[in-house]
Amino acid sequence: AGLEKTASVEPASTALVPAPVDIANKLRYLFGRNGDYTVTDAYQGTAWSVREKLIDSFNKTHDHWKEEDPKFIYYLSAEFLMGRSLINTVYNLGLDGEYAEALNQLGYEMEKVADAERDAALGNGGLGRLAACFLDSMATLDLPGWGYGIRYKYGMFKQALKNGYQVELPDIWLTKGNPWELRRDDVKFEVGFGGRVERRKQGNKEVTMWTPSEKVIAQAYDNPIPGFNTPTTSNLRLWDAVPLTEFDLSAFNAGDYDRAMLERERAEGISAVLYPNDSTPEGKELRLKQQYFFVSASLQDVLSRFKAVHGNNFDLLPEKACFQLNDTHPTIAVAELMRLLLDVEGLDWDQVWTISTKCLNYTNHTVMPEALEKWPVKVMAKMLPRHMEIIEVINEGWTKWLAGHLKDLAPEERAKRIAAMSIIHENPWNKDEMLVNMAYLAVVGSSAVNGVAAIHSNIVKDEIFNDFYQIFPSKFQNKTNGVTPRRWLAWCNPELASLITDTLGTSEWINDTEKLAGLRAYASDKAFQVKWAAVKKAKKAKLAELIKKVHGDEVNQDALFDIQIKRIHEYKRQYLNVLSIIWRYKQLKKMSPEERKKAVARVCVIGGKAASAYDMAKRIIRLVTAVGDVINKDPDTKEYLRLYFLPDYNVSLAETIIPAAELSQHISTAGTEASGTSNMKFQMNGCLIIGTWDGANIEIAEETGIDNVFVFGVRAEEINQLRKERKNFKTDPRWDELMRDIEGGMFGDKDYFKPLVDSVNNMKVGNDWFLLANDFASYLKAQEDVDACYKDQSEWLRRSIMYTAGSGKFSSDRTIREYAEDIWHVKPCRPTV
Ligand code: Z57
């Protein structure tokens, strides 16, 4: 008894229980609550109730996919910046009405309840949020596809301000449980590190054996991803690192309690914390460990499912599975897929190389050389000795092939080209160290390489990987980023969404954003403009409420709401924004009260986190808060100008800020922002853009009408030359004045701001690397154009409508369709209802 198979019993779906009863049941049986619910209770009861509907949909989808056995896309990413799930889940599943009503019966409002959820912040910024938007679109388009990543115990740190300086607090997001995940106790894989590699004769075959010195278990957690307006619910599988044996009993018998506990800590450390750097890699060993950990578990998982259906017919693998490498972080997959097929499955090199390169594709997200990952050979050889060997063999084959391919070049030139394309090369800053260039490994080891906006993909082809492009031109593609119109328009701005739906006479635009173009016909319609303005006003009131809560200040809600929210980075030039705000302040100060009344009032908001070790970024935050402290208190000007730093910028804060924005700033040095994605979210919400000719700004301007966008600054093609000529650049007298102001202590903290002034103000080569001084004058001019336009509210509203109308291209549905067709060759597979 107990060993026989249990009789099969079909469970009754809780979909049959009315939502209010189900919520009360969850609260009683999961939380021991009987009435007197708090808002947090209401959230928990609702979330655990909705979870079951989500799992029903998830199961149906996966039963169907199992039966159909379609080709799958696996999106490998070290980051998934999911944000909150409740609102997205009920809306995507079409349960919003039912649950809003249920909550009303319990005496709660959906919006307030939703606010009790903590963000899942398993990402830094654009790269991680892009991965989250892609999952939404893959599910919505019924594409068989999963995300794979790490279940960090601590996500992106919480940012607080202390006396105007950033302080970092841990993001302890799992303490109250997570209703959106499902632990799969039957899905675990061993992942090894270190140790040695041996060769043995097995019959007449030589086999390679890697004996790791350290092992951990990767434990799977599934996070169902509901599509919108479809029965499809796909999956994000995240791995948690746990020790090999829950408690190593022999260690306890030997009285070695400390060692066993340390072992646990070492294992758990692998998935403990997200590295808080956006677009600058952290060269720490633990980071490489994290990368290999999730890549190895994911590949083992896919291969085990493949084998269960197709046995050892691995030549079929490229027809059943493909992997997208989200930046270089998962690039160790090139060597791991080789190792699994060579050493574990016993195939031979040439066959494995063909399979592996067919299955893998790589997306590049940055062109800044310091942001391209390179691991010291020494580090990799110690942690992943077998992988280092495999990479060496790949590189030998590659350079040999290159020698043949370039045989017509003069020997010297040929050697130079080969050295420049070698996956393993010297560290240019330290001749004693050899590095593995992960981007080169990804380019050589994949079928397709793509950039994330048109200009970026051109830089990828013409500059950073030009040598490779010349050899494999057809490998290189562009896939302009997109964002999900569900979260970033329909669900975060329901007021605008209903106005759009009423106007177009259909809500089909939520799945087919090209339909938004229908709004162009209303752009100059005065009656429509009035309605459009009313929505913006309501959203501004909400943001004003938030500013009041955080800073205690009332702001003028008729002022122009001017927003810059993104990670703090020198290349994104928040500093340039602050300089123009100081300039505006000084101009206002000089005006008579009568003159001031004619000025356009602005409420400026800046938000974003600085990587904890990024000193200059932290100084920029302090400059923002210090300038705000002076401006916001000045009785002469405070009616006309405010500057607030909103701390802890994250996905849910973005959902409040973006719908309220009237002007948003995307002012990176041309050629440095690969794409940007918040620019698309602002555009969808009818927010005008002031920006440089960079990243996706260019395509946004094309779609919106270039005359509707405030474009300024030098172009990407001029940058190299301008950097060389830095010494001869003559700064604007207004710039010199501002430098003296900051240096002279106008905003206090003189010493702390000195390095900021010095970083842009010494006219020598290498200084002001991001060319703030060069763009300063044209930026001020563009800001004057903004003011002039805002004074003509009808023209401003016309443009605002044109932005939303022109945003159709920037749905991640479009992006994902392009990936599916041009790279993945994956087709929709929709479960029947
Ligand atoms: C990151 O958020 C991005 C690139 C990186 O290499 C890393 Br690491 C993190 C961003 C780019 O900076 C954005 O321009 C881009 O829109 C985003 O990735 C998504 O492609």
UniProtKB/TrEMBL annotation:
Enzyme's top EC category: transferase
Q: What is this protein called?
A: Alpha-1,4 glucan phosphorylase
- Keyword check for Transferase, yes or no: yes
Q: Which residues carry this modification: N6-(pyridoxal phosphate)lysine?
A: 681
Query: Cross-referenced InterPro entries, in alphabetical order?
Result: Glycg_phsphrylas, Glyco_trans_35, Pyridoxal_P_attach_site
What's this protein's family per the entry? Belongs to the glycogen phosphorylase family.
Q: What is the lineage of its organism?
A: Eukaryota, Viridiplantae, Chlorophyta, core chlorophytes, Chlorophyceae
Q: Which residues form a coiled coil?
A: none
Q: What are the names of the required cofactors?
A: pyridoxal 5'-phosphate
Q: What is its EC number?
A: 2.4.1.1
Organism of this sequence:
Volvox reticuliferus
Q: Please name the GO terms of the biological process aspect recorded for this protein, alphabetically.
A: glycogen catabolic process
> Which keywords belong to this entry?
Allosteric enzyme, Carbohydrate metabolism, Glycosyltransferase, Pyridoxal phosphate, Transferase
Under Gene Ontology molecular function, one entry of this record is: pyridoxal phosphate binding
